[in-house]
From TrEMBL, chains A, B, C, D:
GO molecular function: formyltetrahydrofolate deformylase activity
Catalysis performed (reactions): (6R)-10-formyltetrahydrofolate + H2O = (6S)-5,6,7,8-tetrahydrofolate + formate + H(+)
Annotated catalytic residues: D224
Annotated pathway: Purine metabolism; IMP biosynthesis via de novo pathway; formate from 10-formyl-5,6,7,8-tetrahydrofolate: step 1/1
Protein's name according to its UniProt entry: Formyltetrahydrofolate deformylase
UniProt similarity note: Belongs to the PurU family.
EC category: hydrolase
Listed EC numbers: 3.5.1.10
């Protein structure tokens, strides 16, 4: 008898919590933790429930299907212990990849790393060490299309549920973005919307900022404009050079990315238009 | 048709959310925001609901009374716009008092300051400026008992719901602590449980810490041991003297205290044994 | 026998510290605290010295004049206890003004508020309470020029050394910016360079950020582009509305602004091209 | 022609900076960065200088020896590029070890890991992956003495300059503490002086704190009482269990430890009685 995570979004209206909690109670379930949020602007209602004691998830699923038809729910029901099948993409820098693999290995990040894809060979030993299947798919202007086909093939073959861009220095095509909509997380090494695009630390240094940051967001075809999941910042001083920004920023990047991935994997992140609801 | 805040605690059991949301739905209410937490150790369940559209709060009150009897609820239903009748106590230092009065005056802190009590005259002009009734009740070893009587008299006369110790340098008797249990908030100028008692900044400086903090907690007869509501910290360096700690710590103190008071006033803080649940 | 603060900037070259510390030692001075920074990109060297025991500042001043001629120093020597003559500008919102006046009054901010200028009457009582001379100078498209003349007149008459824009909602002309170059500090209610211009909290909310911030910077004719002195940030969540951003952001604004003003007043901020060196 | 780091402490007195900068200038050196701090309580003066362009370090060394005799300097002169020969000790948990090895490998931490010593075999593969020589030295009550002999033998044989206790769960004897005084850094998983000793996260949870922390300090025979190098904190909520504290605390531990190790290795940490001066 598994613990379950239910997430849902729907137009706001009276009676949602009552209907949903009724379905759970009828299935013998007990609510361990629950959070709701009704957006007063978009009038969308969002909810996450962590329940235990449900005798038969199938019965609950049927009740929820009935409720969903009435209340127009987008909903998902998942075992709380489910490890999200994750494909991580990287280039040459390993700080984010190393961190994600370590956490997955230690069991503090509920993901199953089914593949590591990189456009260079550099990180193969790291993936090997953690027994994560490594695929080097080089990308040049000529091979970009075939490289993406190979990637989509892997996603399909491995039943990938989540793609994480762990400082992957290539831009994914709209086709891949669409195919995995809401399921690709990128880490951008700036406090967005400041310093989009290339070399954000150098941009930040040139502007003389006193704080640098990192942003984890869902990838959309619009570069660095996708819904933000998590951000964090760190102080810098006049004495820090661009390489110092890079070195210190790595700490923030991996922290922000691992939180975003954990929250996504624990189904704590719900899309709310162009923004996210994070039930942390 | 007012917005309402419902808070409740009870033994954990299936069906709580369903029963409560049912009562709200039956009264025509719509849940704007809701948070729950079931403590896996103490098996107490805690909930806060912000609802709108309830036609008749009295009807809801009756339904909740029935639910409470069945589920053994401690509960409270309050208008969301209610300003908590607050008595603030201080001594000579005005940074916390000034901050609370300013916020109350600006409307960002939902309290009504019905009295300011101090054991010195120093802060009278500040209270006057914000039109807060000021009472100077000096405290000496001889007058401590009569001073407390005067305080309890004021609390009674003014229907005081919350007492805030805004750097009040006297210790309240067990009698007052008991009389206002769970309704006295103190700011202690250290990151508890480090540096209890007197002169915490000097203690922190002597220990060579790199971070100082402040703690807002409910007052219990056990000095500096009450349930913690909020804490925050700030970095210091070797170059900071004790007076520097004091000056920089004031920022943290007033920030922490005002958050704790706001959360309490918005009914976001629930007691959970010796700790608090904060639905922020 | 006063303590002194010496600040200087010059082209980087060997022997600067030796020459400067020699002048101080020759005048009987002892260095209490000193910081240096040589920018490896611009090749400018910056230094701040806090010295005690100088018998005759005039003798030191003469030695430094000789050193300055050789090493091409921009330098300034000031009594450590000097209170900077400050004119604060505001509009209707008082959180920054209230904070600065409180700190100046308590003695934790080494400024002497010689005037408060606002384009509305709203904040007059606050200024009055702290005995700060208040001048209401309304600004309309027609009166902008004469308003600025009045301002410049005040600056001149009161020997103003520093102008602080404490949420002043008007844009100063290039003329004023030039006249007080490096001596006007503004607080912008965003984490620059994100969300320049009007209504930054609304912009931030629309973008779905998870952290908001504030930036204190020197004012230049280029709006929100001046050298940054200090920044800080605070976490927000999906449940926070634009008014919540505004209310919580006020805390950050006043904290950042008061730090920037304190550092400027303590001569800890040196201009380094388009950025600042902050010897905190 | 190497860059050099000079650090020194001495009784405070006029002329120190002048004498030291004179020695550097006479050796052709240019000061890139320099920081001083005179403790007004202990009357000790501390200084760190980063210099370039010194033609002959031996000449500088001779000048400094002369200055040291006059001013009673404790001083050290080191190549700026020197990698500190470091022995890391751990038990079964690898988050700190993994982080240090990764950073050393990437070149963002100026240490040379000459040995990893653990009282269990668990972490051998991790050390192997980074080519760090791994020594398993089990510790029981019976073998504690011989284990320490083995450790001291390794320290000697490998010319170890720094020992890092990266969540090593054994207590070192006074003998080892004395032998490596000021050269053993420990990470304690609480915000000291709160929650000394065993199971600090469980202690913190029981107290209901809202923030947890970690502390890196030099090891002295007095457990968890050594001079603090660095601390940091992270927010927790009522919904976090002890295992959640542990998991989230790991992030803070490794961040704090790596900073402390980096600052020590860069000679930024000077002992000042029972506290530290950190020129960061």
């Amino acid at each position: 008898m598994d613990e379950l995570i239910l997430t849902l979004s729907c137009p706001d209206q009276p009676g949602i919590v009552h209907a949903v909690s009724g379905a759970i109670a009828a299935a013998g379930g007990n609510i361990l933790e629950s959070q709701q949020y009704g957006d007063p602007v978009s009038h969308r209602f969002h909810m996450r429930v962590h329940a235990a004691g449900v005798n038969d998830p199938e019965v609950l699923r049927q009740s929820l299907t009935r409720v969903a038809a009435i209340l127009d729910l987008d909903w998902n029901l998942e075992s709380a212990g489910h490890k999200v099948r994750t494909l991580i993409m990287a280039s040459k820098e390993g700080h984010c990849l190393s961190d994600l693999l370590y956490r997955a290995h230690e069991g503090t990040l509920p993901i199953d790393v089914v593949a590591v894809v990189a456009n260079h060979e550099t990180l193969r030993p790291l993936a090997d060490f953690y027994n994560a299947p490594f695929y080097c798919i080089p990308v040049t202007q000529q091979t970009k299309d075939s490289a993406e086909e190979e990637l989509l093939g892997l996603i399909d073959e491995k039943d990938v549920e989540l793609v994480v861009l762990a400082r992957y220095m290539q831009i994914l095509s709209d086709k891949v973005c669409e195919a995995m909509k809401g399921r690709i997380i990128n880490i951008h090494h700036s406090f967005l919307p400041s310093f989009k695009g290339a070399r954000p630390y150098a941009q930040a240094h040139a502007r003389g900022v006193k704080i640098i940051g990192a942003t984890a967001h869902y990838v959309t075809p619009d570069l660095d404009e996708g819904p933000i999941i998590e951000q964090d910042t760190i102080r810098v001083t006049h004495a820090d050079s661009v390489p110092d920004f890079v070195a210190q920023g790595q700490d923030v990047e991996r922290r922000v990315l691992s939180r975003a991935v954990r929250w996504h994997a624990e189904r704590r992140v719900l899309l709310n238009g162009h923004a996210t609801v994070v039930f942390d």
